[in-house]
Amino acid sequence: MRLSFLAIAASGALLAVPAEGASESQPGHAISPQNLSVEHAEILVPGRDGAAAEGYLTIWNGTVSQTGLIEVRSTTFARVSILRTEFREGEPKALPVEGVLPIPGRAELRMRHDGVRLMMEEPISASAQQIAGGLTLVFEGGQEVNVVADVVPTRAALTRHHHGEGDVGAN
Q1: Could you tell me if residue 33 is inside a domain?
Q2: Do residues 100 and 68 lie in contact, with contact meaning Cβ atoms separated by under 8 Å?
Q3: Against a cut of 0.85, is the pTM above it?
């Protein structure tokens, strides 16, 4: 499990926020409920090159215990895979996350293009890639969180999540 966590921490953005002394300027975290919450959910629609849509989530684990993301289901895409970027010799390579994607207690997982992200394939309808999509996140222990993901047309339109500074609309 430790190797899995290190691989995810290196390839994604996992930000720990201490339970005590959390800054008042960090929107949501200092006063957030002690549960799992999705702060951002966005789907980047593919261009005309035939690439798959990508999903980006910011998940806050407000509990004191580590949990793991097991699966993501979509109302607009038949297949959703969790990918990670591996940096080895040559070009970065996108590989599936095998097993559970860990999120430590009082920490945040922020998905990014060069780290952990969702690959969304097989749109359910021709217009599926143009409408906001419902996502169901399944965590260890069977907990499910439902969110509506905003559709964004370009990578530049993805939300950049910054604690204490507010969010900005470019990644």
Answers
A1: yes
A2: yes
A3: no
DSSP H or E segment with residue 7? helix 2-11
Report residue 86 as tokens. 């591996």
Assess if residue 163 is contained within a domain. Answer: no
Domain with 11 in it: 2-157
What's the Cα-to-Cα distance from 116 to each of 1, 34, 97, 124, rounded to whole Å?
17, 24, 8, 24
Question: In whole angstroms, what is the distance from residue 124 CA to residue 74 CA?
Answer: 9
- What whole-number distance in Å separates Cα of residue 37 and Cα of residue 33? 9
Interior angle at CA 140, CA 135 and CA 145, nearest 5: 25
| List of the chain residues with pLDDT < 50 | 1-27, 163-168, 170-171
Instruction: Report d(CA 137, CA 43) in Å as an integer.
Output: 14
